[in-house]
User: What shape does this take?
Amino acid sequence: MKVALEGKTIVITGASSGIGAATARACVAAGMHCVINARRKDKLHLLAKELGENCIVVEGDVTEDGFNQHLLDESGDVYAIFANAGHGLNQSMIDCDMKQCKELFELNVFSAIELASLGAKQMVTNQSGHILLCASCLSKFATPKHGVYSASKSALEAMAKSMRMELKKDKMFVSTVHPIGTRTEFFDVSAVRSGKEESTFSSQSPSWLMQPPEKVANAVVRCLGRPKPEVWTSLPMRLISTSFSAFPKVASTIIQRFS
Ligand SMILES: NC(=O)c1ccc[n+]([C@@H]2O[C@H](COP(=O)([O-])OP(=O)(O)OC[C@H]3O[C@@H](n4cnc5c(N)ncnc54)[C@H](OP(=O)(O)O)[C@@H]3O)[C@@H](O)[C@H]2O)c1
Assistant: This one.
């Protein structure tokens, strides 16, 4: 099925940098109206200036009580939502800081579910709409020290699977986005949250494992135009993660060897 995107409105959270900012650029280039959200007002306004009249800013923290409803109230008639705001955590389970774990789930899972749920209520009345949740390739498997992050992305994926079936009768689409390593602020933000000064993941990873955020953004726009359940930008990683689910013992051995 093909969807005409011209003139339709999308709300993108976590749009002050990385995948969210790149997706806002790609959506405006595809003729959509964008409502961009994050906490850093200055970065959002710079992006809005670049994107022109098809972009409005609603800054604020998506984990704050009542904010997601405010975001939708300010956005008008919304066709799509990309719940993309998220951060990582790099801590072994034995040393995990529960405050950090809860904050991660508040952002990566609960705020995304709340926004999707509130948005879906509006979309049901329109009998059309598309909700995209930013998961990760790590929603399919876990690596040492990223258990809480992987768990948050697996939770989102499970939620999306359920919503997809519930909302089909109302002509709505639900998709999850599964980036591999992407060159954004993500690794540095996660390092700081994990009590480290900076991350070396991005600079030390082989280039085939790292992609620019524009690659994810373009895949998201393709999915908006031709809805499908999952957005992947790496076929090898998609196949590897599917095999990992089927063969968990082999998966642990391989993952531990490369961690
Ligand atoms: N980079 C990767 O390798 C990778 C791989 C797989 C999945 N992902 C996922 O991709 C998504 C985007 O991450 P990214 O790589 O683009 O990293 P990023 O550049 O750090 O972007 C994260 C965005 O989330 C926003 N944000 C954080 N807390 C927020 C809050 N409480 N309320 C509203 N906005 C908030 C940040 O803006 P402010 O600080 O201005 O609020 C920023 O715009 C995340 O869900 C991440 O888990 C990333």
Remarks:
- The mean pLDDT is 95.
- The pocket of NAP is lined by residues 13-20, 37-40, 61-63, 84-87, 107, 134, 136, 179, 181-182, 184-186, 189, 213 (CB under 6 Å).
